[in-house]
Write a structure and sequence with these properties.
115 residues, Jelly Rolls, four-stranded antiparallel β-sheet, 50% strand, (S)-ureidoglycine aminohydrolase cupin domain-containing protein, UGlyAH_Cupin_dom
Length: 115
């Protein structure tokens, strides 16, 4: 049996993810784990280049930890804040959010889809 050990900084098995505003690319993701139940929890690494990433309110909850980089983050109508390594962000179901990535950025996210 192989023990599942992952390094967040590994750039292996990355797939294109949401593009930055006004660009064709800019971010990548790597799924680490998914609960085997329908609509199960997902754990993934997300890596992004500088740019703006707007997320409409989504039918899921997400909590992420910033591992690398700096960004300006905002949710709904809240005041934007600067986030960086060690910051933990929680996004409730249906809440729109925005990330303005200032430097190469990486996060470890737990996503809980909601049926």
């Amino acid at each position: 049996m192989t023990m599942p050990i992952f390094n967040i900084s590994d750039d292996i098995d990355l797939t294109p993810a949401m593009p930055a505003q006004g660009r064709e690319g800019g971010s990548y993701r790597r799924q680490i784990w998914q609960d085997s139940t329908e609509n199960g929890t997902i754990i993934a690494v997300w890596k992004a280049e500088s740019g703006i990433y707007n997320y409409p309110g989504r039918d899921l909850e997400e909590t992420f930890v910033v591992v690398e980089g700096e960004a300006i983050y905002s949710q709904a109508d809240e005041t934007p804040v600067t986030i960086g390594p060690g910051t933990i962000v929680s996004i409730a179901k249906g809440v729109p959010s925005r990330l303005e990535i200032l430097s190469p950025f990486r996060k470890l996210a737990t996503v809980i889809p909601k049926p």
